[in-house]
Amino acid sequence: MRVDSERAAMIMVGETEFRPVGPQAWDTGVRRTDMDADGIDLQVVSPTPVFFGYERPADQAVKLARIFNDRTLETLAGDERFVPFCQVPLQDPDAACAELDRCLDAGHVGVEIGNHVGDRDLDDDGIVAFLTHCAHVGAPVLVHPWDMPGGPRIDRWMARWLTGMPAETHLSVLAMILGGAFDRLPPELRICFAHGGGSFPFWLGRLDNAWHRRGDIVRGASMHAPSHYLDRFFVDTVVFDEAPLRLLVDTLGEDRVMVGSDYPYPLGERPAGEVVRRAGFLSDGQRHKLLTANATRYLGRSG
Length: 303
Known about the structure:
Subunit structure: Monomer.
Domain Amidohydrolase-related: 23-300
Mean pLDDT: 95
Helix content: 40-55%
Pathway: Secondary metabolite metabolism; quinolate metabolism
Low-confidence stretches: none
Family: Belongs to the metallo-dependent hydrolases superfamily. ACMSD family.
CATH class: Alpha Beta
Distance between the termini: 39 Å
Strand order of the largest sheet: 4-5-6-7-8-9-10
Shape: globular
Largest sheet: 7 strands, parallel
Radius of gyration: 19 Å
Pfam family, one: Amidohydro_2
């Protein structure tokens, strides 16, 4: 982090500027003001994936996680409007479980993970073991895409964010299905995929068709067609338009979609939840689920 002033800083990757950040990233007063302006009562505060450290030796990733996790709790100072999610050294499942337990004891509520660790996707035995532990201790999991491949065709126009992120999330949902992860995981696991589940909801019909017609290749370790698993995960509403929001509700069901924001970064929705509030196809009951009830259930809260 390069600190440029009291109100401005730059996230650095080596010597390369990655993303400018402002006081929204560290000033809870600024966050509260923005929440009030957007009509948001409760906000999940989660890590920035570029800081996960999955590519580092596990002992270094443990150290990084502890620094960020402890600093998060120190910054939030027990403010009940903020729900802290920790990060873990996912490349070492045992260390990841230990850090999660430490963080839950300290005041964190859930955990954010990247959608892969190198070439290991979410059906990897070690990652499934970690997710099983999350289910047993009741920690909700947020999966965020990260580390998208680059190249001349995708390094223009933020295309890694505009096409790479949706594709990464799609691939990881597919890995959990066809890799048999959902069949091995406890049904109590509460797991959410960011950005509306990426491109997965749009291509569900293609996936089911391939599973049935080319089962010799496609089925992998899965016991059922992809559409069977739609009640095993949540997605957020960061899709910005009524038409894709309708697709999410029609495909995944009104109980599996909850408001998201990507706050405080520039591709996030402001005001947060606006696409849900203005969606004409939602009933009042459905709108309440997307804005409130589904998130409280995902977080393990009542009310």
